[in-house]
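User: I'm preparing a small set of examples for a lab meeting where we compare how different chains pack in three dimensions. I only have the primary sequence for this one, and I'd like the structure in token form so I can line it up with the others. Please keep the answer compact; I'll paste it straight into my notes.
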Amino acid sequence: MHTLEQLHNGSLAGATRLQLSCGLTEFPREIFELADTLEILDLSGNALTCLPDDLPRLRRLRILFCSNNRFSVLPAMLGACAQLTMIGFKSNRISEVPATAFPAALRWLILTDNRIGTLPATIGACAQLQKLMLAGNELTELPPQLAACTALELLRIAANRLSALPPWLLTMPRLAWLAYAGNPVSAVEEAAAGPAAGAIGWHQLTLAHILGAGASGVIHQAQWRQAGQARAVAVKLFKGAITSDGLPACELRACISAGAHPNLIAVLGELRDHPHGVQGCVMALIDPAFASLAGPPSLESCTRDVYASSQRFALAALLGIAAGIAAAAQHLHRRAIMHGDLYAHNIRHSDQGQALLGDFGAASLLAPGPQATALQRLEVRAFGVLLGELLARCDGGDGGTAAVLNSLAQLQHDCVQANVAARPLFADIARRITACHVPQ
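Assistant: Understood. Below is the structure token output for the 440-residue chain.
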């Protein structure tokens, strides 16, 4: 975090990154003194309502964050910022998105938790758009021109007013991570899922240290007292009424509806009676021998997880992880649940190849019919991306080992192919992985 004093006295000269959160109501003009170097500007957590028309003077600006301010209109001059690839205006009051607000180089747009009712057709010109975050708005439809954004891989449209998913959405060649819960289109399925079962009272829990945090909440280790016994558990407390993926209530319905599976992190019940009304759930505590498979995407990687540079997988472990996650996804699809965030950073694994899939923040319930199959095949692409990442970090071999790797490479290719209808479903994926055997 930087200060206005640092900006005023010139001590930030040559800075490539600037972060100011100090109750700003106007854009500090001194920022333009950094025009030759500034690449990342974060003005989140202020009281701004507009940006200067000459913002494009920041000619090297690549990333702009203005979340948690008071904008009612997405600044129109953003489209003139030639190098701008990432824009974040989460949790403002935006109801209007001008047609000129999209820069040509845009890869990542975050407009979560606003009041947007329509998007302009010009978004279809964003040929490089990979990640679009629109949860928690008032959209009743998506512009058909969005179909031209064939690089789009992640789309969050949960908690809007969509009564249907457009058919073109289900044929987008690279779309892999989709969340749409909390819309009229899924209201029937969500109502049928009913209230979450297995309520666990706040008074039964004693929270300890934080185990981790994600987009939707913070996870604590805790003790659960029940019938005179104490059990170590994990408690997820949601951060707010709306997350970047959608609604906490939808996540609770999905993760409890998922039921038990050896490759899913077990959910024990919904948290009730928190003194401040915070929503949450209680989960089984994972063995500390299980580690995160990867870190979440970075500002640079956009839609791709970040692995440790030294991360390698033995073929046997790779097969175990792939088989486990394919089995978990098949189980979810059979229960009419799309995970929506099938990523390595949501997977815990052991060195022996055991894998556990968690985090249902982006999950959606599938309605019966042909759309459900198409949606499943979108998620198959997410699995294909994961499998490709594992294969890229697996040592090669000769003979039978090479044959297994070739089979997996073909499966990976089939999962990510642009023709969505030609991708295999998880039953076939699981069968093909099971058919692979590591030579003894």
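A couple of notes for your slides: The longest strand covers residues 217-226. The chain has seven helices and 19 strands.

User: Perfect, thanks.
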